[in-house]
Amino acid sequence: MSDDSVPAAAAPAFRRPGRAAVVLLLAALLVACAPRNAFQFAAPSPEAHIERIYIATEHDLGDLGPSFGKQRLRGLRYLHLDVSIPPTHRMGEIEWPKGSPDAATDFVVTGSHVYRDARGMIGAMKRHTPGNETVVFVHGYNNTFSDAVYRFAQIRTDFGVTGPGVLYSWPSAGDPRGYAYDRDSVLNSRDDFESALEALTAGPGERVLLLAHSMGAHLVMETLRQAALSGNRRVLDRISGVVLMSPDIDPDLFRSQAEAIGRLPQPFLIFVSRADRALTLSGLLTGRKPRLGVIEGPEQIQGVQGVQVIDFTALGAAENGLGHSVPVTSPVAIRVLRGMMAQARRGADAFGDFLVLDAEL
Fold first, then answer.
1. What is the DSSP letter of 346?
2. pLDDT score, position 317
């Protein structure tokens, strides 16, 4: 059938991408061809701050580079890395070495240890950073292992997190061309992630706070859905809160996931930005439909109970890149969030279901 025979009503399905979409696609291809940063070991500096990052990962510890095209492994490996934050660190940034790594100016790794199992890692973590609530960070699409480790170290430093924390590193391709690969990896990771949550909440009174970015939010929602459908309420009841930052999820799918989960953990926060160019590209790749991380109002998740949305659009002007991590990379947003956290600890009244932050704050 020739193009001339396509009915007029079907024409929109064949429209070419707009100029902005083409620019985004070209940028993604250029980035894909560029070498990725990897963490490097260096001697410690007495003036640097050390963040010990505990990690549960599906990666092969003998090959921690980009995973695009590699066979996925099953089962988890446990380790920690001591990440040195330089005294020159600027809020919201990761200071990758531009030459030889130097702990005085760069993020570097100064030590590491691999554990035999989850029990060994959790025991060591509790001795090093006591507490009954563990922050679990789940990274997003196009993240290498090194990206995720340094990002969690930056978040812990800039937000002053001192309690237990674990990075859950699933096998992202670490390549912009691996979008479909990453979506499959998320689905493949549900069982292992649920096992990690069970281990972290096995002790009396142990709870977890889930912080997920981008496609990592899809992994969190799918795992909570799976736990609910299998009747694993013990894990669900041990979740002290969920934060989905720039979630790369179709809003209709999110509504379906939330319905299956039932009573959502509280608090349940969604951080969005209408200027998120990465999610604009994701929407193009998945059918021109806006993703959950760029919704413009509460009506787009109408019917989902117990969810609060914070719109960071106005606070992202100072952030470099695609505007995909504003809450943890914009210094203004970090300061606002820290203030909101302090208010919450003092028992201040909660905000409404949809809060749009003002750049004047």
1. T
2. 62
